[in-house]
Design a protein that fits this description.
It contains 21 helices and 15 strands. Helix 5 packs across helix 19, helix 11 crosses helix 12 and helix 18 runs parallel beside helix 21. Strands 7-6-5-11-12 form a 5-stranded parallel sheet, sandwiched between helices. The protein has a 4-stranded antiparallel sheet with strand order 1-2-4-3. Strands 8-9-10 form a 3-stranded antiparallel sheet. The protein is an alpha/beta fold. The protein binds one RNA strand of 78 nucleotides through helix 2, strand 9, strand 10, helix 11 and helix 12.
Length: 553
RNA sequence: GCGCCCGUAGCUCAGCCUGGAUAGAGCAACGGACUUCUAAUCCGUAGGUCGCAGGUUCGAAUCCUGCCGGGCGCGCCA
């Protein structure tokens, strides 16, 4: 166990505060020197060689100040620097590169190792309620690999948002009503009849997959007395739950469409749309006049001519429920690529009903499985689909999640099965995990040599003088910023790339410098503190991704 | 036809939202490094008309327009 300790020499440094300090300082200098009011852009330089933060403000001031960016940069820098900043250096044609002081970075490292579970978590919390809905696969059969991708991406976004201080609820919308469920029930009944030796046909548009036959056998042999249609629905749903859980994806709420349909909300929403004169009758059906609200959205049916609610209507009401009954400030709904037409419809409807700009529908692109360099062709009809369960059993949870995450979600993903299966150096997920395992191993070695935790947590980090050590510290410093960026941009792929870079810096450091050296106790302790902070960062980052951090490999 | 996404090194991709420093990784190729804490590692070499053409700008892989190529979607299905 780690003992909480009092850090006397240094105070906790807040990365966002530091960035903010630089912004304010620059704005002040610009006002003072050139009498202009600007909000300077302070961002990460492309390389750590250029410092910790950089600004291109001099370029922006060039016209107003009628001077070259380089001269402006020189003038700006000629003043007392803000807190925690040790240098501001003019570089290139007019950049200013800032470096965080070593004292401040040392304080950060010590605070990480004394409170590892808090590292990366934003405080204070933001007072915003966010819902993330994802997967929401129909409970009509085994989940496919797009659901697996959605699970990895959705859960990571939710984890990142939570870490960044938002109040997050994850939700799976259970489509347990409607036409498809009826067809599922009928298909299942037909399979049962077939097993009983009677002739029964699976209905048109029904589910022909072998799995229903297997379930039918299970149903009959279990002697269940429950209505088969209810039984199969529960069966498939519970299978989905358990696969998702195995995939490190858990939902706070499983929201039943069937229950929702009887809540009265659909009727209410429909009548509000009518009152707002957003609907009209055509061909015996009732339509939503979406094109009147947004130019590029076509009208669509709310109530079918047979009097049944269309899917679109129920989904609109469902999303209204999220805002009105449950008070979410922001809702992210992740949908598959075949739903992109639905996105504009939903967002238009939210606008019509008084909730503009609160719903963001994210479209997750498709997945192609690649084996032996070729695309695996999948066909539902031929029963040749690869299920989420098979994928997990094949490549493992960690590798699968890594490959799903290490790609922008709006891009198509070619999932290389051979590479994901590969447990060698070609597989980047092991590269990151290996860095962690190496560190655990070194720390264990050190403890066996008599170093203890109390010493490490009071290390004198000024003993760290090599560039490899400083690159590591400064990369760690960027971790909370990386999480914040992920949450703000909803781009989970940022985290795996960051962790890979961090692991690379560690491996480089490891090769050049020995950590445990009994003749250099102080230095060893400082390095142990450093690598412990690296390990904590990797572990916390992997946890957000739902990927494990094994102590040994 | 309309809409969404993609096009950056031989391959797989970052970088684009928010324009600026020599366009970055990994894999594959070639050459090196283990008596010392895990070689699932490290170092080096080589590899690019950023799909094409215009435009905006002091400055474009990044923003705008038009093309070309690839994927997907356009139901009173959900």
């Amino acid at each position: 166990m780690r003992k909480p300790i009092e850090i006397k020499k240094y105070s906790m440094m807040n990365i966002f505060k530091t960035n903010r300090t630089i912004v304010d300082w620059l704005a002040g200098r610009a006002a003072e020197l050139y009498d202009v009011d600007v909000v300077p852009d302070v961002f990460e330089p492309e390389s750590l060689d250029f410092g910790d933060w950089t600004t291109n403000l001099p370029f922006q001031l060039a016209r107003v100040a009628r001077k070259s960016p380089a001269d402006i940069a020189t003038e700006i820098v000629d003043a007392e620097l803000p807190k925690n900043i040790s240098s501001a250096e003019v570089a290139g044609a007019g950049y200013i590169n800032f470096r965080i002081s070593k004292d401040a970075l040392a304080g950060m490292v010590l605070s990480i190792i004394s409170e590892p579970d808090r590292w990366g978590f934003s405080s204070p919390e933001k007072n915003v309620k966010i819902q993330v809905e994802f997967v929401s696969a129909n409970p009509t059969g085994p989940m496919n690999i797009v659901s697996a991708r959605a699970a990895a991406v959705g859960s990571t976004i939710a984890n990142a948002l939570r870490t960044a201080g938002y109040d997050v609820s994850t939700e799976f919308y259970l489509n347990d009503a409607g036409n498809q469920i009826r067809l599922l029930g009928e298909s299942f009944l037909a399979r049962i009849e077939q097993l009983r030796g009677k002739s029964a046909e699976i209905p048109e548009g029904g589910y022909f997959g072998e799995y229903l036959l297997d379930y039918a056998r299970e149903y009959l042999s279990s002697g269940a007395s429950e209505n088969p249609q209810e039984w199969i629905l529960k069966k498939i749903t519970s299978e989905q739950k358990s696969v998702l859980k195995k995939f490190n994806t858990e939902f706070d709420v499983w929201f039943s469409e069937r229950e929702f349909r009887s809540s009265g909300k659909v009727e209410e929403v429909l009548s509000r749309l009518r009152d707002g004169e957003h609907t009209y009758i055509k061909d015996g059906a009732e339509w939503f006049a979406a094109s009147k609200i947004a130019d590029d959205v076509e009208d669509f049916v709310l109530v079918k001519s047979d009097g049944e609610w269309a899917y679109g209507l129920v989904d609109i009401a469902y999303h209204i429920n999220k805002f009105e009954e449950r008070g979410f400030d922001i809702v992210y709904t992740i949908l598959g690529p075949d739903h992109h037409g639905h996105r504009a419809r939903l967002e238009t409807a939210m606008k019509a009903l008084g909730h503009p700009d609160k719903l963001k529908v994210l479209i997750l692109q498709q997945v192609n499985l690649i084996e032996n360099g070729e695309k695996i062709k999948m066909s539902k009809r031929a029963g040749k689909i690869i299920t989420m369960t098979e994928l997990i059993d094949d490549v493992g949870v960690d590798a699968a999640r890594y490959f799903f995450l290490a790609r922008k979600m709006e891009a198509h993903l070619d999932f290389d099965l051979d590479l994901a299966r590969n447990t060698s150096d070609e597989n980047p997920v092991y590269y990151i995990q290996y860095a962690y395992a190496r560190i655990r191993s070194i720390i264990e070695f050190a403890q066996n040599k008599g170093f203890d935790v109390d010493e490490i947590v009071q290390a004198d980090l000024s003993l760290l003088q090599h560039p490899e050590e400083h690159f590591l510290i400064r990369k760690i410093y960027k971790y909370p910023y990386t999480i914040e960026k992920t949450a703000r941009n909803l781009q989970p792929h940022i985290i795996p790339f960051y962790l890979y870079d961090l692991a690379k810096l560690f491996h480089d450091f490891y090769t050049k410098h020995r950590v445990v050296d009994e003749n250099e106790k102080g230095l060893s302790v400082a390095r142990l503190a450093l690598i412990d902070a690296v390990a904590i960062t990797i572990k916390n980052g992997l946890k957000i991704c739902g990927i494990s951090a094994p102590d040994k490999m």
